[in-house]
Amino acid sequence: xxxxxxxxxxxxxxxxxxxxxxxxxxxxxxxxxxxxxxxxxxxxxxxxxxxxxxxxxxxxxxxxxxxxxxxxxxxxxxxxxxxxxxxxxxxxxxxxxxxxxxxxxxxxxxxxxxxxxxxxxxxxxxxxxxxxxxxxxxxxxxxxxxxxxxxxxxxxxxxxxxxxxxxxxxxxxxxxxxxxxxxxxxxxxxxxxxxxxxxxxxxxxxxxxxxxxxxxxxxxxxxxxxxxxxxxxxxxxxxxxxxxxxxxxxxxxxxxxxxxxxxxxxxxxxxxxxxxxxxxxxxxxxxxxxxxxxxxxxxxxxxxxxxxxxxxxxxxxxxxxxxxxxxxxxxxxxxxxxxxxxxxxxxxxxxxxxxxxxxxxxxxxxxxxxxxxxxxxxxxxxxxxxxxxxxxxxxxxxxxxxxxxxxxxxxxxxxxxxxxxxxxxxxxxxxxxxx
Length: 435
Description:
The chain is an all-alpha fold. Helix content is 69%, strand content 0%.
């Protein structure tokens, strides 16, 4: 039996008694394992005499921590049956601890098991994709009160899964699903006129897009933020957000999203008073439409040709002047034709109402009050309106109250009718994306 001079030197350098070393080791073991070992000065004495050369793993780790050394060898500890550190030839490599190898092997096994754990599978992800596609399509024409619970339930299910474990590719997939569902929640809030809630949902969409590195989702989020800024009256920010959406990062992705972003930017620039930029960007939007491929998702996440013509009509109307007003009437009429020609399930009541309102405004600008009233009658038949349609109607009422319409009885009657329908709640039983 050979004394452990290395351990004694470390203790003496700290000016600790054997009792103090035992107390420190006990505290370290308790902190690491929760156990309360019963070690005393006698145990430390046996270590220093060489009676114990290789205490258990918890105690070795605690001794290394107490004396702040990198290995047991520095404390003169070694397994039974192997030579003490001072007795090894200079060229001999340190002995390999078989138990340490077993521990390393177990760690690898644990990592493999941990990496293989997942709370989703291919069928679950496929079902989420199908739910998002169905909700996106239904959002265009189904009553909003029927969709809100479904959207909320689907979002809650995805969020709960994200709190668990899955493969990295599955996690990215879930974040994409969460992003699209949050986009639907944002639309619900904006349709109800709750801009603060809509902004919160939109930021969640942006975050999901960043985590999943999904270009189309990121670009769509920018388009929605631009839309919200437009209806808040912040036209410059609306234009800048749309511009960022089609120019930042790796681009907006495939499908019609670029045409949507350019159309949003053109409309915002026109509302801001930058007519030259509005017309230039509007031409780019038409070019983007001709080069667009199929959209990843249908319904509210797509940008049908009818909607693009409706945006064009609004933009040209804002630019103003006789020529652009005539073009606006043509664009809005084209939008109405396409909406009526398409499948009823893809027909957006709100977008159709918006096109009729643009036509009414254009006819007013041309002095045709009766024709404007005829287009408004198409809108008045709806029982309820989205927040954006209500804003459009009130803007039109303000126009009817200005010169040269103020004194005309037909204008007075139209204003009264607009007031009557806009005092109703702006909850859409026929919801659609605010235009």
